[in-house]
Amino acid sequence: MKILFIGGTGVISSACAEWCVANGHELVLLHRGKSFRAVPEGAKSLIADINQPDAVADKLGNHTFDVIVDWIAFAPADVDRDIRLFRDRTAQYVFISSASAYQKPLKQLPITEETPLENPFWEYSQKKIACEKRLFREHRETGFPVTIVRPSHTYDRTMIPLRGGTTALQRLLSGIPVIVQGDGTSLWTLTHHRDFAKGFGGVLGENSAIGEAFHITSDEWLTWDRITELMAEAAGVTPKLL
Predict the structure, then answer these.
(1) CATH code of the domain covering residue 46
(2) CA distance linking residue 173 with residue 88, whole number of Å
(3) Residue 164 CA to its chain's centroid (Å)
(4) Neighbours of 90 (CB within 10 A)
(5) Nearest in space to 30 (alpha carbons), one of 65, 75, 80
(6) Smallest Cα–Cα separation from 229: which of 158, 166, 162?
């Protein structure tokens, strides 16, 4: 398939870019060229700012794609721009939403794609919800070929999945107590970005995914105490938890 990524050099998208190239797809990354992560060998780069749609349209010329994925759309204005720009350029438009959009406080487990989208605590999530509503309305009214993907907490070798990041790791290595969320017993799911990429590849070019939403996460549930203990084990130390 011929695939266009808007972005493609972030924690999650970089692994998905590698997956696309490794699986024989023709991949083009439209980005500003400012990330420290390299574009995968075999992918093509278009250096442009998606927030300048006229310049992007000029860069794209008459090219069309089997799939377009926007990794960096965060507000309804962003998806409105994408609808105008890509409506006649792709057979599938994939919007990257967020599992943080799911209902909070949560009334029922497990979380599924049918769990209500309602997060009064975080503007980022509220904007993602608004984007989803806008895109699904466009799909109903005009057939715009949208697929929604909701990542959860996803990490790579550059991201320490603890509150405090490298500071928390340094405290572990120094034998200083590490503060753990809540009482440490709440459940959480962490997903490695390459595991995410395998699942993500399954929705690309899939006709049955049009008009649908999917979350992609690990199926392993861990307490925050256990997550911190695993980080300490990897570092070769015994943790002190608060």
Answers:
(1) 3.40.50.720
(2) 54
(3) 21
(4) 21
(5) 65
(6) 162
Residue 224 in tokens: 């925050």
Question: Is 197 in contact with 16 (CB distance < 8 Å)?
Answer: yes
> CB atoms < 10 A from the CB of 168, how many?
20
Q: CA-to-CA distance for 28 and 229, rounded, in angstroms?
A: 40
Which residue is associated with the tokens 């083009």? Answer: 28
Q: pLDDT for 44-88, tens place per residue?
A: 999 999 999 999 999 999 999 999 999 999 999 999 999 999 999
Instruction: For residue 82, give both structure tokens.
Output: 């994408």
Number of separate domains in the chain: 1
Q: Tally the C-alpha atoms within 13 A of residue 137's C-alpha that lie toward its C-beta.
A: 9
- Whether 114 is in a domain gets the answer yes
Q: Which domain holds residue 93?
A: 2-159+189-222
Predicted structure pTM score = 0.93
CA dihedral 111, 116, 120, 122 (to 10 degrees): 50
Helix (H) or strand (E) run with residue 171 in it: helix 166-174
Q: Is residue 116 part of a domain?
A: yes
